[in-house]
């Protein structure tokens, strides 16, 4: 009887593990290449409600002299953070959207606060572990790179990631070109 129970528990554990892995894979594998990349490697903003349907990784505040001058809030698809915590790597097809927001600052009962105001644009990175678009100037170093102005979601302002993106990301080279230290949801505890 004990052997039957042990076998049943083992079978359930394997089924749950496979189901969880499949579910996690579905979340991000129907991903960047399906929702933000054309056949030639052109990148466009995903047509998804990333603010409510995706995971918020974290927020950077752009400091001014006396108040925040902007906020950068970063989102990714469901399952990506779990994959990163389990492997220490972003999965192929992961999309990171950094939404740029201006701020307003005022005195409230809790003190002087700065909070999000108007959107000004989005930076989009799409993990490319396979080097799919080597001839496209928006792809390299394991990612697709693009910036979109708030007025135009289909055509990026960026024309060459090496000239327009890499200088800002060199300090994050050791963490796959992403400032992971600003994303507490990626930390394993």
Essential attributes:
six-stranded antiparallel beta sheet, 189 residues, Chalcone isomerase, alpha+beta
Strand % is 25-35%
The number of E-state strands comes to 6
Structural class: alpha+beta
SSE pattern: HHHEEHEEEEHH
Q: Biggest sheet, open or closed, and with what strands and sense?
A: 6 strands, antiparallel
Tell me the CATH topology.
Chalcone isomerase
Query: Which oligomerization state do the chains in this entry correspond to?
Result: single chain
Shape: globular
Number of helices: 6
Mean pLDDT: 84
Level-1 CATH class name: Alpha Beta
Write structural notes for this entry.
The radius of gyration is 20 Å and the shape is globular. It has a six-stranded antiparallel sheet. The protein has about 190 residues and is α+β, with helices and mostly antiparallel strands. It has helices at about 1-30, 30-35, 50-55, 80-85, 160-165, 165-170; strands spanning about 55-65, 70-75, 95-110, 110-125, 140, 145-150. The protein has six helices and six strands. It has a single domain, classed as Cytochrome P460 (Chalcone isomerase, 3-Layer(bba) Sandwich).
